[in-house]
């Protein structure tokens, strides 16, 4: 790559198209949503009956057929790609939630920075994979990174959506003197619950919700109105657009 006069971009994380080179016509044909222009209806993940010579192949009690791959994740191979001379990394997230995008992008950002800071002493910590799993949609695989994927990298006859940790807070502003964060509520949470604040700029911070106020600075116990602007005491210098997820029990 040292003699290649072009920048190299490499896809490292996200959903993969089951069709050859991503050239899907099923979505357009079945739902009039163009897969090659960002409108994919993921018709490969739908359930289908299979016929051969006009005879139904899958029986009444069989699981309907679907054709879907596991998601791509090269979290364990970023150092190798950097050393190969890759200029930029691509993460699929066009139709994902901001919680998913923030979790995945911030994790890779920290991983890339940690590797570049000291490549010779970098240790591939399991914490990066654990962080990605907090927003995972499906099981993960390395795609074509080493060789051709086998049936183990596919989800034929199987759905594999994984539950994620619940996104509850987006930080709007923070006052370091009062330690009050102006927040936007995203899902139900209340005083006494544990929240994990995450960001690409600092380590994750786990806290117990101790003080919560409405816009009139009145004490409240529960945040239960979607997109409501509130104030929350956070004894940590968070930044605008940091996010908080409810800790799994």
Quickly list its features.
single chain; 249 residues; alpha+beta; 7-stranded antiparallel sheet; 4-stranded mixed sheet; 4 helices; globular
Task: Give a description of the structure.
With 249 residues, this protein is of the alpha+beta class. Helices cover 16% and strands 23% of the residues. The protein contains four helices and 15 strands. It has helices at 26-31, 78-84, 98-117, 127-133, and strands at 9-14, 51-52, 55-56, 71-73, 88-91, 140-141, 167-175, 180-185, 189-190, 194-198, 205-208, 212-213, 222-223, 229-233, 243-246. It has a seven-stranded antiparallel sheet.
Please summarize what this structure is.
By secondary structure, this protein is of the alpha+beta class. It contains 4 helices and 15 strands. It is globular, with a radius of gyration of 22 Å.
Major beta-sheet overview: 7 strands, antiparallel
Low-confidence stretches: none
Q: State the separation between the terminal residues, measured CA to CA.
A: 47 Å
Instruction: Output the strand order for the largest sheet.
Output: 11-10-15-7-8-14-12
Structural class: alpha+beta
* Total DSSP helices: 4
As a whole number of angstroms, the C-alpha radius of gyration is: 22 Å
What is the approximate shape? globular
Order of helices and strands: EHEEEHEHHEEEEEEEEEE
Report the β-strand fraction as a percent range: 15-25%
Fraction in helix: 10-25%
Oligomer: single chain
What number is the mean pLDDT? 87
The number of distinct β-strands equals 15
List the helices and strands and how they pair.
Layout: E1 9-14, H1 26-31, E2 51-52, E3 55-56, E4 71-73, H2 78-84, E5 88-91, H3 98-117, H4 127-133, E6 140-141, E7 167-175, E8 180-185, E9 189-190, E10 194-198, E11 205-208, E12 212-213, E13 222-223, E14 229-233, E15 243-246
Parallel strand pairs: 1-5, 4-6
Antiparallel strand pairs: 1-4, 2-3, 7-8, 7-15, 8-14, 9-13, 10-11, 10-15, 12-14
């Amino acid at each position: 790559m040292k003699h290649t006069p072009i920048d190299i971009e490499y896809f490292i994380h996200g959903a993969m198209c089951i069709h050859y080179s991503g050239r899907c016509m099923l979505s357009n044909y079945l739902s009039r949503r163009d897969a090659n222009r960002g409108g994919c209806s993921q018709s490969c993940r739908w359930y289908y009956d299979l016929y051969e010579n006009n005879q139904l192949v899958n029986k009444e009690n069989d699981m309907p057929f679907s054709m879907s791959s596991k998601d791509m994740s090269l979290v364990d191979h970023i150092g190798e790609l950097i050393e190969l001379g890759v200029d930029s990394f691509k993460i699929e997230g066009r139709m994902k939630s901001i919680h998913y995008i923030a979790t995945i992008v911030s994790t890779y950002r920290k991983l890339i920075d940690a590797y570049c800071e000291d490549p010779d002493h970098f240790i591939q910590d399991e914490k990066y994979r654990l962080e990605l799993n907090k927003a995972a949609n499906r099981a993960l695989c390395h795609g074509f990174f080493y060789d051709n994927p086998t049936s183990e990298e596919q989800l034929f006859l199987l759905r594999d959506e994984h539950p994620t940790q619940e996104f509850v807070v987006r930080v709007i502003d923070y006052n370091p003197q009062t330690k009050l964060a102006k927040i936007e509520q995203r899902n139900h949470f209340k005083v006494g619950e544990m929240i994990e604040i995450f960001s690409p700029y600092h380590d994750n911070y786990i806290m117990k919700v101790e003080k919560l106020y409405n816009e009139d600075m009145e004490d409240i116990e529960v945040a239960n109105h979607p997109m409501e602007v509130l104030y929350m005491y956070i004894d940590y210098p968070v930044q605008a657009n940091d996010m908080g997820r409810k800790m799994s029990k």
